[in-house]
Structure formats: C-alpha cells, structure tokens
Amino acid sequence: MKIGNLELESPFAIAPMAGMTDTAFRRLVKRHGGCGLVVSEMVSSEGLIRGIDRTLEFADFSEEERPVSIQIFGGDPATMADAARIVEGMGADIVDVNMGCPVPKIAKHNAGCSLMREPEHAAAVIKAMTRAVSIPVTVKMRAGWNETQKNAPALAKMVEEAGAAAVAVHGRTAAQSYTGAADWTIVADIADRLSIPVFGSGDCVEPEQITGKLEQGIDGVLVGRGVLRNPWILAQAADLAAGRPMRHVTMEERGRFLLDYVDLLLHERVRDDERNRLKSHDRWVVNKLRALGAYYTKGFEHGAQLRTCLNTTTSIAELRSLISGFFVEAPSALQNVS
Ligand SMILES: Cc1cc2nc3c(=O)[nH]c(=O)nc-3n(C[C@H](O)[C@H](O)[C@H](O)COP(=O)(O)O)c2cc1C
User: Fold this and answer.
1) If you measure from the C-alpha of residue 15 to the centroid of ligand 1, how many angstroms do you get, rounded to a whole number?
2) Is residue 246 part of a domain?
3) Do 306 and 208 fall into the same domain?
4) Which of 64, 199, 280, 287 is geometrically suited to a Cys-Cys bond with 168, CB 3.0 to 4.6 A?
C-alpha cells in the first residue's frame, strides 16, 4: 500500500487518539509489529504556528515510529498551509487533517467535523496545504455531520480532487459521537469511488474484524480503542493476513507492556505548566496509566478492581508493584474472559 510515494509495510495503523496515542505508546505498539502507520494526537494549527509548548509536545515523535503522520486541526486555509510546512519541517512523513472531531470546543472554530458542513471550504483547506508541502496530505473524516448530512462520499471525492493522498473515514456521524455502530458500508462505498487509498475506522476490537475489512475492498484500517485494549491487535491482524498462526499474548507480556510504558513516560518531556499543575512528573505518569488502564483492563476478570487501585495509586513504586502483582506475579488472578 502506498500513500503518495510513501510505501507502508502494513495496511493496519494506530488511529489518532487525543490523550492516548502519545509517542511512548506508539513506539511500544510499533515494536510489536504489524503497524504500518502511526498517527499523532490531534495538534492545533494555531498552536504550531505560535510555537506553543503544549502543541509541540503533542507533535513529538521518534525515529522508530516511522512512517509517522502528524494530525492537525484548524479551519483557515493559510494557517493550515503554514502549519503543514512546520509539520514537514519537523520531519513528519504525512500531514493529516482532522475533519472528524465532534467536540464543540474544536468544532466551533470551524475545525474538526464542522469542516464537513462546508465541503467547498474543506477542499480549499486541502488545496492550500497540498500546494505548500511536498509530503502527502491526508484527511480523516466522519460519515457526516448527522444522519441527514452523511456527505463523506462527496467530500472524499472533493478532497481527492484537491490533492489529498489518502482519506480515512470513521463510519459514525458527529451527532453519534461514539454511540451506535460504525457504518462500514459507507467506507466500502468511498473506497469503490476513489483512486487514492481509503482507510476505515470504527469498532475493530478483534484481529479478524480488521482483516475482514480488506475483504470488503477497503485499503487499510485505523484501529483506535482496539489497540488501547490490546496493543498486539495489529500484529495479530498481520499474522492472520499473512496466513501465519496468530500470536498469543500472555498476561506477563501484558504486564510488561505497562511497565515499559511507565519507563518510557518517565523519560518523556512534560511541559512546565502541566508538571507544575500536577506537582510532579510522576503524577503525570500515573495519570497516563489511569487513562490507558480504563481501556486496557476491559473484559478482564478483576479489571474493575485494577482500575480502582490505579485511581488511588499516587507513586511510581506503587504503580509498578500494582502492575506486577496483577499481571506478572499472579497472572492467574486475571483471566481473559472475552
Ligand atoms: C480517546 C479518543 C481520542 C480520539 N482522538 C482523536 C483525534 O485526536 N483525532 C481523530 O481524528 N480521531 C480521534 N478519535 C477517533 C479515533 O481515531 C477513531 O476514529 C474512533 O475511535 C473509532 O475507532 P475505534 O472504534 O477503533 O476506536 C479519538 C477516539 C478516542 C476513543
């Protein structure tokens, strides 16, 4: 699979997830294999231009994550073009545009999914960006704004004509947010109409669901919450796609993943205002583990107990011993019930 001139080793990718898919997490997922592309958390185009610390932190990535796509949001063509130049200057392989975020804080600035309500303007944003940079510009959108405005097929065609090198479609409307089920027929329909690669996104929590999408003529799959639950899911899907036996993940490996995540986060850059607010870098790491833990422990016996313990843990030592206790030393205490 190719996006512009960029060759992806696998059509399976980590979906962008604000607050979750930081560089440390992406690095660990990538190390397990099967991941053809990583996409950053969404980054403000205005923040990039103003050089705001918080924004730059969200755009951090490391060499081992390549190919890397940085996702930006904004609604002004000139600002988005300038931000795309900055992203290219940072060395990213792809710049992606967020046309899917339904959160009012983003949508009210004529960014995120509200761009879908003004398709001509959305296409003008893409045109300005593709003129400004030589790396591929891609778009991630939803099925539409609401049930009566499911315009992803028309918009996808327009952004293709404006120069986008690939599109990704989350098969829900902004009005649905995360309720209901993702509509993959709309993704298959778009894949059928476009000549550029089309990725789908939504509700893939088992490796078989991921590989099944390729059979529907969809070029690639962005997996979000499924990766937060099971960071090996892309490697398992790649096993299935290659006809290899699917790798089995032990409880000890699951524990090791969290411990490695803690270690990587301890070495991450945390901006001063965030560190001051939380009083310490350790506290920031604990908060990150709480956020991931909410997904990671889903479907596991005693998962709720682990989540409660994570919510009361305050130190790294406690955090490590909690993870080891559950996953490494007494794996039999947690049986996979899914
Ligand atoms: C916590 C969270 C944060 C998200 N942040 C972003 C984001 O920054 N940009 C974006 O395009 N989509 C974002 N999404 C949407 C996902 O990329 C994905 O399209 C959606 O969750 C459906 O896929 P899934 O069912 O595999 O999770 C986010 C989703 C979640 C759950």
Assistant:
1) 6
2) no
3) no
4) 199
> What separation, in Å, do the N-terminal and C-terminal C-alpha atoms of the chain show?
32
| CA atoms 69, 70, 74, 80: torsion sign | negative
Residue 113 among the catalytic residues = no
Q: Is the pTM of this model over 0.90?
A: yes
How much is the pLDDT for 208?
Answer: 97
Residue 205 neighbours by CB distance under 10 Å: 18
Q: In angstroms, what is the span from residue 273 Cα to ligand 1's centroid? A: 26
Give how many domains the chain has, as a whole number: 2
pLDDT at 334: 41
pLDDT in tens, 211-245: 999 999 999 999 999 999 999 999 999 999 999 99
- Beta-bridged to residue 140, according to DSSP, are 98, 168
Q: Is there an atom of ligand 1 within 6 Å of 142 CB?
A: no
Which of 9, 15, 176, 186 has its CA nearest to residue 96? 15
Q: Which residues of the chain have pLDDT under 50?
A: 331, 333-338
